[in-house]
Design a protein that fits this description.
The protein is built from six helices and five strands. It has 169 residues and is of the alpha+beta class. A five-stranded antiparallel beta sheet has the order 4-3-2-1-5, with helices on one face.
Length: 169
């Protein structure tokens, strides 16, 4: 397991009904992956993650075990790492919305209206993968250039890392 650096993101598996729900949703929209959750490592053994109770800062050891880190796959300067950590911390307490999963599904199926997309953006709610993508975007790193941060799942982050691994980055 690679040792994470501040600003790296991690992907985890989650069990139970929530994990099954995310698995089904990712399969349904065509981005099935063996992970269901994402978080940002901010250093000193701490992470920021979106949870149904709101985004929180917790100890890495209290999070679900990370099965994949972005470490070494996404080149980041020390300033970018710092900025990602700051942006992730600024997202603490951000509310969560299960409706964002529906918005993602509708977008993938080509059925989402602009009204729904605008609502998701203006609601300031985030699921875990959206928190990661938004923290990176606010720090100037666009993991998925030209796309809306609200349209990404943990599976998207997983496939991004696998693509980077296979391209030799």
């Amino acid at each position: 397991m690679t040792e994470p650096q501040p600003g790296d993101f991690g992907l985890t598996k989650i069990g139970g009904l929530a994990g099954a729900f995310v698995n089904f949703g990712q399969w349904f929209v065509g981005d099935f992956a063996p992970v269901q959750h994402a978080l940002v490592y901010i250093g000193n053994g701490m992470v920021v993650q979106a949870m149904p109770s709101g985004a929180e800062v917790i100890r890495l050891e209290d999070a679900s075990p990370v099965v994949e880190w972005s470490t070494g796959l996404i080149p980041l300067t020390e300033q970018e790492r710092f900025d990602i950590c700051v942006e992730a911390l600024l997202l603490e307490h951000t509310p969560y919305s299960f409706l964002d999963y529906l918005s993602i599904a509708l977008e993938r199926l080509g059925m989402r209206s602009r009204l729904i997309r605008d609502y998701v953006e203006s609601s300031n709610h985030l699921i875990c993968s959206q928190l990661v993508v938004l923290a990176y975007e606010r720090a100037g790193i666009h993991l998925f250039p030209g796309t809306f941060h609200g349209d990404h799942t943990p599976g998207d982050l997983y496939h991004l890392l696998k693509d980077l691994e296979s391209s030799g980055n």
